[in-house]
Design a protein that fits this description.
This protein has six helices and 15 strands. The protein is α+β, with helices and mostly antiparallel strands. It has helices spanning 34-38, 41-46, 48-51, 87-95, 115-124, 132-139; strands spanning 8-13, 18-24, 56-59, 66-69, 74-75, 101-102, 187-195, 198-199, 202-203, 208-213, 219-223, 235-238, 243-248, 263-265, 276-278. Strand 8 and strand 9 form a beta hairpin. It is 15% helix and 23% strand. The structure holds calcium ion (2 copies).
C-alpha cells in the first residue's frame, strides 16, 4: 500500500510573527487526517518557535504539546484593580471588558481570585486553566532547594523583597521549559476538583510528604513521618471530605514543603486568598 505525503512549507518571518504556510498536504492513507499529522508531537515541536504567543512558553507533552504562561498571571494594563485585595476587586476586574490576565515579569500576581474566577480570567484571554498534568509538565526542572534560599531562588521563605513578590524576581526559579515561579511565590490553581478525596474516581492518598507520583501527576504514595529528599521534601495537603479545588507549587512561606510535587486540595473552588494565584495555558 502506498502512502503519499506532500508537505511543503514556507516561512515568512515578519516583525514578531512567524507565518507557517502549509502549501499542500496530501494524505492518501485511510484514517489519517491532515490535522492529526500537523499536530503530532514531533511536528509541533519543530514549530515551537512560532507556536506560542510571546508571553507563553512551549511545553512538550505526549498529548501533542501546549503553551503555558511564562509567569504567574497578573491583571493586565486595562484592569481597574492592578493588585486585587479582595474578591470584589477581582469581580470588578472580570466584569470590565478590556481587563485580561497578563503574563509579564515584574508584575504582582493576581490574588484573591477563586478557581472558578481564574478559569473565567483565562477564558477572557482566549486561554484556559492548565490541567493538573500540564502544570506538572511545565514545572519540571525548576530548582527546589531545601534551605538557604536567596533572592535568586524561588520564593518559599520570604526570601524576596516582598510577599508576594513580582513575577520572575528569582532569576534561578525557572523550569526546564522557561516558566518562572512554578515553585512558591503564590499557589496556582489548576483545572479540576477533588470530591470526597477522589479525583475522577481514583482515591488520592492522605496528607503527607510525597513518596511517589501516580503517573498522572498526583501523589501515588505519601507518608506522615519524614520528608523524602527524592521528592524535594514536598508536601501534599488534602481534605478528604467535600468538594476541593486543586492548587500547586506552594507559596512564599512553605519552605521545603513547596515544590513541583506540592499540592493543596483543602479549599473549595470558591476560595480566595492572599497566597493563591494562577496562570493560564492554551
Ligand atoms: Ca507559583
Ligand atoms: Ca520542596
Amino acid at each position: 500500500m502506498g502512502t503519499t505525503i506532500d508537505l511543503k512549507k514556507k516561512r515568512l518571518v515578519g516583525r514578531k510573527e512567524i507565518i507557517v504556510i502549509v502549501a499542500a498536504v496530501v494524505l492518501t492513507t485511510a484514517g489519517i487526517k491532515a490535522s492529526d499529522n500537523f499536530f503530532s508531537p514531533g511536528e509541533a515541536k519543530r514549530e515551537s518557535s512560532g507556536f506560542c504567543p510571546d508571553e507563553m512558553v512551549y511545553i512538550t507533552s505526549s498529548g501533542g504539546g501546549f503553551c503555558i504562561d511564562q509567569f504567574e498571571a497578573s491583571p493586565g494594563g486595562e484592569c481597574p484593580n492592578p493588585d486585587p485585595l479582595s474578591q470584589a476587586d477581582t469581580r470588578a476586574n472580570l466584569d470590565y471588558r478590556g481587563c485580561l490576565p497578563a503574563s509579564r515579569a515584574g508584575t504582582l500576581p493576581w490574588r484573591f481570585i477563586s478557581q472558578d474566577q481564574a478559569a473565567v480570567a483565562c477564558a477572557k484571554a482566549g486561554k484556559r486553566l492548565p490541567t493538573n498534568e500540564e502544570w506538572y509538565a511545565a514545572a519540571l526542572g525548576t530548582p527546589d532547594k531545601k534551605a538557604d534560599w536567596s533572592a535568586d531562588d524561588c520564593q518559599v521563605n520570604g526570601n524576596w523583597t516582598a510577599q508576594p513578590g513580582q513575577a520572575g524576581s528569582g532569576k534561578d526559579c525557572a523550569s526546564a521549559a522557561g516558566a518562572y515561579d512554578m515553585i512558591g511565590n503564590v499557589w496556582e490553581w489548576v483545572e479540576g476538583a477533588v470530591n470526597d478525596g477522589s479525583y475522577e474516581g481514583k482515591k488520592l492518598p492522605a496528607s503527607g510528604f510525597v513518596d511517589s507520583t501516580d503517573g498522572e501527576s498526583f501523589p501515588g504514595l505519601t507518608n506522615q513521618n519524614a520528608p523524602n529528599p527524592d521528592y524535594h521534601e514536598d508536601y501534599f495537603w488534602i481534605k478528604e471530605s467535600g468538594l476541593r479545588g486543586i492548587a500547586r507549587g506552594g507559596y512564599w512561606s512553605n519552605k521545603s514543603d513547596a515544590g513541583t510535587y506540592s499540592m493543596y486540595i483543602v479549599t473549595p473552588p470558591s476560595f480566595v486568598g492572599s497566597g493563591m494565584g494562577f496562570r493560564c495555558a492554551k
